[in-house]
């Protein structure tokens, strides 16, 4: 996504199972490699992580 990923839009690199298709590959964007998840971002479960990430998306929506 050359112009960035808009809030609320899934990454173009996610497959049908919501897994990154370019993880560990050289073409993976630098931003993704530099992202350092934290407890504030991920919580204690997948459900909590999705809820927290949805809130971050909403908070940063233009």
The portion of residues assigned to helices is 25-40%
Mean pLDDT: 84
- Tell me the fraction of residues in β-strands, as a range: under 5%
Q: Characterize the largest beta sheet: strand count, sense, and whether it forms a barrel.
A: none
Shape: globular
Radius of gyration: 12 Å
Measured distance between first and last alpha carbons: 17 Å
User: What is the H-and-E element order?
Assistant: HHH
Q: What class, by secondary structure content?
A: mainly alpha
Strands, total number: 0
Low-confidence segments, given as residue ranges, are none
Number of helices: 3
Describe the structure.
Helices cover 37% and strands 0% of the residues. The chain is globular, with a radius of gyration of 12 Å. The longest helix is centred in the last third of the chain and has 14 residues. By secondary structure, it is an all-alpha fold. The mean pLDDT is 84.
Topology:
Elements lengths: L29 H5 L4 H4 L3 H14 L3
Report a brief summary of the structure.
This protein is mainly α.
Highlighted features:
0% strand, 3 helices, mainly alpha, 62 residues, 37% helix
